[in-house]
Amino acid sequence: MPLLVAVAGVSGRFGRCIVQELLKKPDILVRGLVRDSSKVPAAIRSSPAFELLEGDVTDVGTIRQLVNGADVMISALMGSDLFMFEAQKQLIDLAEEANVYKYLQGKTIKGVHVLIGAFLDTFWTQWFGVWNPEELSLSFWGTGDEVWELTSYENTAEFVAEVALDSNASGIQKQFVGERISVRGIAATFEKVHGHKPSLKRLGSLNDLKAVIDSTNKDENPMLWLPLTCYRFYQYYCSNGQTHTGTGALKTPYPGLRHEDVKEYLQTHSLESLVTAMFTVGTRN
Ligand SMILES: NC(=O)c1ccc[n+]([C@@H]2O[C@H](COP(=O)([O-])OP(=O)(O)OC[C@H]3O[C@@H](n4cnc5c(N)ncnc54)[C@H](OP(=O)(O)O)[C@@H]3O)[C@@H](O)[C@H]2O)c1
């Protein structure tokens, strides 16, 4: 019997990357939930191993259809804090009711969280506030030696597909980070690949950054808060060590899978495509 993997959020960047990786495996069926089927890449829609389910994840009947008979349930959803909590809690409760044995992102079913630091593709967007493609500069708070954990969407999806098939995987998975590297290290790698060293711009200390974050009020203007402040949280918590998964050499438990480091990412993405690469992940094949 093929393994049935149910995925919520297939039209999203991460969801489509995960489904593409899963569809490369033998003996697997993927059931994907989307609100709008036209957003699902043709290569996924046309696969005989892919079953499309259209509906909203807040609808109980839809989730029952999604998890019915599934062995593994993956959430690649993205939304407000409240949506992420309530929709995913409901997914877990109904997956458990349907005897799904594994939930990736977990209770008595085997819950698995895959921690990867920040998405490398997100890091290079202008929105993120580090890379400036016009100036060829990298901005940072702190000393520039703070370590970031960075992993591309596609490399994360490769790991998630392996974890989905691994009946022993459970709990918090911390061994899948692409690379631990500082902004200075990224600048040096960039120079090696592109022959030009980005200028480095120090914006202040990490304490200065925290003070900027604390001075902004999400409730005052939520529409402005997201684009103007959200990335500062990323910068603060990714570089102050609080979200780090560990130290030392990176080693995956899955033979044949490699950690895609910044060098490899830069070698496979043109200079021009860096700022927009995040928006096309999972649409290239
Ligand atoms: N570590 C990092 O740097 C980082 C960065 C970004 C994201 N993430 C994580 O990665 C995951 C996915 O992010 P992403 O970038 O792939 O997000 P995304 O592209 O915005 O995709 C979000 C997905 O959720 C779906 N969705 C939202 N509300 C829904 C609803 N009510 N019913 C059904 N589907 C719904 C969307 O469907 P529609 O297409 O219909 O809207 C879409 O498929 C999240 O867990 C996020 O926290 C991590």
Question: Could you characterize the architecture of this molecule?
Answer:
This protein has helices at residues 13-23, 42-45, 60-67, 81-97, 120-123, 153-165, 183-194, 206-214, 222-239, 262-267, 277-280; strands spanning 3-8, 28-34, 50-54, 72-75, 102-104, 110-114, 118-119, 131-132, 137-141, 147-151, 171-173, 179-182, 199-204. The chain is an alpha/beta fold. The protein folds into two domains: 3-114, Rossmann fold (3-Layer(aba) Sandwich), CATH 3.40.50.720; 118-152 and 178-280, UDP-galactose 4-epimerase, domain 1 (Alpha-Beta Complex). The strands form three sheets. A seven-stranded parallel sheet has the order 3-2-1-4-5-6-11, with helices on both faces. It has a three-stranded mixed sheet with strand order 7-10-12. Strand 8 (131-132) and strand 9 form a beta hairpin. It starts with a strand and ends in a 5-residue tail after the last helix. The mean pLDDT is 92. The structure holds NADP nicotinamide-adenine-dinucleotide phosphate. NADP nicotinamide-adenine-dinucleotide phosphate (NAP) binds at residues 9, 11-15, 33, 35-36, 39, 56-58, 76-79, 118-119, 122.
